[in-house]
Amino acid sequence: MKFGIIGCGGIADRRTIPGMLKSEKVEIIAVQNRTIDVSKRIAEKYNIPYYFEDVEELLKIKEIEAVYIATPVYLHLPQIKLAADYGKHILSEKPLGMNVRETEEIVEYCNKRGVTLQVGFMMRYHGYHIKAHEMVKNGEIGQPVMGRAQLTTWYPYIEGAWRQDPAKSGGGALMDMAIHSVDILRYMFGDVSEVASFNGTQTHKYPVEDSGVLLLRFKNGAYGVCDSFFNIPDDAAKGFLELYGTKGSILAEGTISQVAGGRMIAYIQEQKQYDAKQDRKEIEPITVEAELKDLYQAEVEDFIDAVENRRKPMNSGEEALKDMIVIEAAYNSQKTGKVIKID
Question: Which of 44, 87, 158, 280 has the lowest CB atom count within 10 Å?
């Protein structure tokens, strides 16, 4: 599939373009950036024929079948609608929109235009997460009871950083990172029915939150915790995923990440009777094995298959909308001091 890249700096250059180019199914025809020097540099770096400053000039290239959009969040709505008008299938970075209203508008517009929409929740394609999803679905940990997903980074004040400007990002640690954690727990346990949250700014001097904890209740009765912070050193938080059930647990370290690495173990023990002594007997951990693949390569290959077979990709616009509903509820919970119910 022939792609154009809209917003070729940042994550596109660091992760997505290299991942896409690992796939024999991808050919990148053109790149765009608001700074033409960046476009030219990226085009030369990856031997891409065309580079632009103007988005529409890229979209006018007829041989481009799909676009990957990696611009700041406030640009997603107009750029996605324009790409859909040109009949391009769309892989967009998350969050899909600035809020629930924008996200709904994007999903509806792409459906109306008949173009495939995928959103960059690439962590769903981590081999360990796919395996954990299968184990939960197959009942290996019994009834799901509780899940925890952790994603943090050190993100101090940076002059001109769009993620630190609420008018361009829609929010801070919750919008940028907790939304990934919400998506992973939803992938494991299903849809969310209630949300409560503490979030705000503890450390850094910018107008978006640098700290956030979400409490979730899932429709299947399980509980969830998402912790996302911009004020914890990178090496101090290990990207944990913890899934607990009535028959055991699945514990992962380093899998909630941009890289397909980490490790995962499981403790499976069906305990039928109450042990008053509560002797903690050592249970032999089960090492979970999984096929690991570049997350961005796996993501784009699912996208191409979805287009070719006229199906929804695993991380569709509808899934992104459900994540945004949870994040918006978390902000509302902080403002009101209440638990927010989701229909």
Answer: 280
